[in-house]
UniProtKB/TrEMBL annotation:
Organism: Mycolicibacterium murale
Family membership: Belongs to the methyltransferase superfamily. RsmH family.
UniProt xrefs under HAMAP family: 16SrRNA_methyltr_H
PANTHER family cross-referenced by the UniProt entry: 12S RRNA N4-METHYLCYTIDINE METHYLTRANSFERASE, S-ADENOSYL-METHYLTRANSFERASE MRAW
Single annotated GO MF: rRNA (cytosine-N4-)-methyltransferase activity
InterPro entries in UniProt: RsmH (IPR002903), SAM-dep_MeTrfase_MraW_recog (IPR023397), SAM-dependent_MTases_sf (IPR029063)
The name this protein goes by in its record: Ribosomal RNA small subunit methyltransferase H
Ranges for region Disordered: 302-335
Keywords: Cytoplasm, Methyltransferase, rRNA processing, S-adenosyl-L-methionine, Transferase
Binding site for S-adenosyl-L-methionine: G50, G51, H52, D69, Y96, D120, Q127
Listed Gene3D superfamilies: Putative methyltransferase TM0872, insert domain (1.10.150.170), Vaccinia Virus protein VP39 (3.40.50.150)
Residue ranges with Basic and acidic residues bias: 303-316
Length: 335
C-alpha cells in the first residue's frame, strides 16, 4: 500500500494521516472478543472523508462504527464512501463533544459501551480545498470558516464587530500570534473604512501589519491568524475539553482512545487530560498504591508520536501530527 502511487483516500481529497498506526493501535481493542470485530463498537469522532473508518470496517467485517461530524458536506462524502458497509456504520451530525448523546441516539449507553475512539483534530484537507469555506489563506474567498454552516458566527463577524481586547486575545491565545495587539489595532482601523468580506482582505492587512523580518520566518504570515479565527468560530478547544472525558467514559474495559492533534494548543489539552487519566489516585506520600486507587487508564504511547519521513513524503499534512493513545485496563470491570 505504501508504494501505491495514489495513497489510499486521495480520490476523496483527503489522505488519512497515520492510517497504519491508528489501525495498529485500535485493532487489539476492537478484536478483543472476536478476531473479525464482531460485537465491537468504534467511534470516529471526527469522521471527515471516512478514511480511517473505511480501513477498520474493511479489515474487521464484524465491526460496527459510529461516525460523527458537524460538517454536512463531510457526512455526505463519507456516507457515499461507506455505503458498501450498509448498516454496519451509523453517521450522526454533531460536534465531537456530542459523543454521549450520539451513542444514546444510536441505541448505546453513553458509558461502558465503546471499544475504540479516534479523534483526528483540526481542519481537514477536504475543507481547505473547498475555497468557498474560507479556511485557506491561499485563495480569495468569503471569510466564513464555519465547520458547521448553521453556526451563527463567522470569521467576518469577529473581525468586523469585536473590540480590540477580545480580538487581540483570540489571536494571542488561539493563534499564538506575537503581533496580536498590532494586528487587532489595524483590523479596527481598516474596518472603519471598509468591513472585511474576504480572506484576501485579511491576508493583505496581515502582510502590512506584520514586520518584514517576521514575515520571512515561521511560515505564511497569515497562518496563525487564520488558525485563531477558525478555532474561535468553531469553539474547537472548548469542544475538545468536553469531548475527551466523554470518550474516556464511553470505553469498555480494554477500550482505547487515539487522538491526533496538529497544533500545540490541542496537544496540550490532550496531554493534560491523558496525564490526569493515567495518574495514580493514591494520596501522595504513601509508600504503596492503595487497592482500587490505581490509574483508571494506561498510556499506549511514550509522549506524542510523530510521523516518520516516509509518511510525510506520502502525506505532507502528517508533518505536524502528534499522536497520543490510552487504554482502559481490562482487570477492574467498568471502573
Amino acid at each position: 500500500m505504501a508504494d501505491d502511487p495514489q495513497p489510499r483516500g486521495a480520490e476523496y481529497g483527503h489522505i488519512p494521516v497515520l492510517l497504519d498506526r491508528c489501525t495498529e493501535l485500535l485493532a487489539p481493542a476492537l478484536t478483543a472478543r472476536a478476531a473479525d470485530g464482531t460485537g465491537a463498537l468504534f467511534i470516529d469522532a471526527t469522521l471527515g472523508a471516512g478514511g480511517h473508518t473505511e480501513r477498520l470496517l474493511s479489515d474487521l467485517p464484524g465491526l460496527h462504527a459510529l461516525g460523527l461530524d458537524r460538517d454536512p458536506s463531510a457526512l455526505q462524502i463519507a456516507g457515499a464512501r461507506l455505503a458498501p458497509f450498509g448498516n454496519r456504520v451509523t453517521l450522526i451530525r454533531t460536534r465531537y463533544d456530542g459523543i454521549a448523546d450520539a451513542l444514546e441516539e444510536a441505541g448505546h449507553p453513553a458509558e461502558n459501551s465503546v471499544d475504540g475512539v479516534l479523534f483526528d483534530l483540526g481542519v481537514s484537507s477536504m475543507q481547505l480545498d473547498r475555497t468557498e469555506r474560507g479556511f485557506s489563506y491561499s485563495a480569495d474567498a468569503p471569510l466564513d470558516m464555519r465547520m458547521d454552516p448553521d453556526l451563527p458566527l463567522t470569521a467576518a463577524d469577529i473581525l468586523n464587530t469585536y473590540d480590540h481586547g477580545p480580538l487581540a486575545a483570540i489571536l494571542r491565545e488561539y493563534g499564538e500570534e506575537k503581533f496580536a495587539s498590532k494586528i487587532a489595532k489595524e483590523v479596527i482601523r481598516r474596518r472603519e473604512r471598509t468591513p472585511f468580506a474576504t480572506t484576501g482582505d485579511l491576508v493583505e492587512l496581515l502582510y502590512a501589519a506584520i514586520p518584514a523580518p517576521a514575515r520571512r520566518t515561521g511560515g505564511h504570515p497569515a497562518k496563525r491568524t487564520f488558525q485563531a479565527l477558525r478555532v474561535a468560530v468553531n469553539a474547537e478547544l472548548d469542544s475538545l475539553r468536553a469531548a475527551l472525558p466523554a470518550a474516556l467514559a464511553a470505553l469498555r474495559p480494554g477500550g482505547r482512545v487515539v487522538v491526533m492533534a496538529y497544533q500545540s494548543l490541542e496537544d496540550r489539552i490532550v496531554k493534560s487530560v491523558f496525564a490526569a487519566a493515567t495518574a495514580s489516585r493514591t494520596p501522595p506520600g504513601l509508600p504503596v498504591e492503595l487497592p482500587g486507587h490505581e490509574p483508571e487508564f494506561v498510556s499506549l504511547t511514550r509522549g506524542a508520536e510523530r510521523a516518520d519521513q516516509r509518511e510525510i513524503d506520502r502525506n505532507p499534512r502528517s508533518a505536524a501530527v502528534r499522536l497520543r493513545a490510552v487504554q482502559r485496563p481490562t482487570d477492574r470491570g467498568g471502573s
